[in-house]
Amino acid sequence: MRIKNICCIGAGYVGGPTMAVIAQKCPDIQVTVVDINEERIAAWNNEDVERIPIYEPGLPAVVQEGRGRNLFFSTDVDTAIDKAEMIFISVNTPTKTYGIGKGMAADLKWIELCARQIARISRNDKIVVEKSTLPVRTAAALKEILKHTGNGVKYQILSNPEFLAEGTAIQDLLHPDRVLIGGDIETKDGIEAISALSDIYEKWVPKSKILTTNVWSSELSKLTANAFLAQRVSSINAMSELCEVTGADVTEVAKALGMDSRIGPKFLNSSVGFGGSCFQKDILNLVYIAKSFGLKQVAEYWEQVIIMNDHQKKRFAANIIRTLYNTVSGKKITVLGWSFKKDTNDTRESAAIYVVDHLLNEEAEIAVYDPKVQAEQIYKDLDYLESRNKEANRLNLNVTNDPYEACKDSHAIAVLTEWEEFKTYNWEKIYENMLKPAFLFDGRNLLNIEELTKIGFVIKSIGKPAPTKNSVVSKPALVS
Length: 480
Ligand SMILES: NC(=O)c1ccc[n+]([C@@H]2O[C@H](COP(=O)([O-])OP(=O)(O)OC[C@H]3O[C@@H](n4cnc5c(N)ncnc54)[C@H](O)[C@@H]3O)[C@@H](O)[C@H]2O)c1
Fold this sequence. Notes:
Radius of gyration: 24 Å
Largest sheet: 6 strands, parallel
Protein name: UDP-glucose 6-dehydrogenase
Bound molecules: nicotinamide-adenine-dinucleotide
CATH superfamily of the largest domain: NAD(P)-binding Rossmann-like Domain
Number of domains: 2
Domain UDP-glucose/GDP-mannose dehydrogenase C-terminal: 334-449
Mean pLDDT: 95
Low-confidence stretches: 471-480
Strand order of the largest sheet: 3-2-1-4-5-6
Distance between the termini: 71 Å
Pathway: Nucleotide-sugar biosynthesis; UDP-alpha-D-glucuronate biosynthesis; UDP-alpha-D-glucuronate from UDP-alpha-D-glucose: step 1/1
CATH class of the largest domain: Alpha Beta
Enzyme class: oxidoreductase
Organism: Autumnicola lenta
Oligomer: single chain
Shape: globular
């Protein structure tokens, strides 16, 4: 089966970049990305390609190449569904905030709405591809909905989870470690559908990297991959706390670990904690699934990854308060970085939100600078927590476009995102304009401790002993 028209429902961090790359690599296929969010679609169609709604290195050029040729962004979902032989579902699947499974299970209402819309519109056979991250066995539910509400149209459901990481999405899409396609490997139609999708990826991905499995394995592999990645972060973060009290250095420990070929060096950076829209929600979902099958120990094992991550964020904020003589009330604290990682404007579940919320509870006055996140988003993130009213958030937190202004007259700086530009600042100038002692809390172990200590900063890094003998920061408990 040759695919000529693709529809992707959901023009977010996954749908946008993924389809832009497919359109680039398959100029003979017309790719239409649809969304109910009019503002988002308008931004994808912005004449100035630098102003598309997602900040992702390399994405503007890929969008520019395909847009108007074989890549289209539209709010006309029905027409795009009708025209396509293959439909990707790439909508959000956040943690439920109500009812059964609240705070744990994935909310599948947007997925179900898509399935019902596909069933209502379709007049010829379709391949429906799950691109969203979904609980294992969701394809069965999709099949039920399509079968019972459809009009005799035949559907094949494939699972094709997305493994891209924000910040490196284009490189990840162009050179994936693997492409996973789960489908009905026991029927001729199923195998044909798998090969139709595989043909698309084969335009630029070596066939050896395209992995075919049954649907359940594919769905579960995505949740498992995120759980393993997050677990590595929580594991090294757990060690960072132990390093701080014993005088070991977490960077040295990570290096020693990473040289073991069985462990490998990636994803061993200790930090203020992981964020992003996926790790937490996918682990919670995994925990919920395990619980619902009565697998108590499995659920508790994975839940611990989240507990450790929450602890790391809280302990970072508590460390700031303790170091600033047990009070931050009325003190200006500067936060450098709001996005959940560098090279993205995505702030979902960013550690900065929780650290700042904690500091605002202690009556600190916060200044924020992030190179890509707008003030409106920062306030929205804090308002969502409902820890205080909206006016109080705006009164006690100020967002600026100038990092030097943000740091001026500050008692302490907290680096919460690993943006490269932070390394290039004139730190002498920043030091001069701060209150003394000038405290710096490096939540990403990003900056050069030796140089900054020489300037005069009192530095607190994650998982490292205090840098100087005369430091105001208390020495590790076991050696003092
Ligand atoms: N963000 C990532 O790094 C990443 C990586 C891999 C997988 N995923 C998974 O991919 C999925 C999408 O994630 P995202 O980050 O792109 O989400 P997102 O929130 O950025 O985008 C989802 C989009 O879907 C749209 N939408 C929802 N219901 C719709 C409907 N019925 N019709 C049309 N549009 C609709 C929303 O308006 C939104 O713009 C999630 O399941 C996520 O877990 C995300």
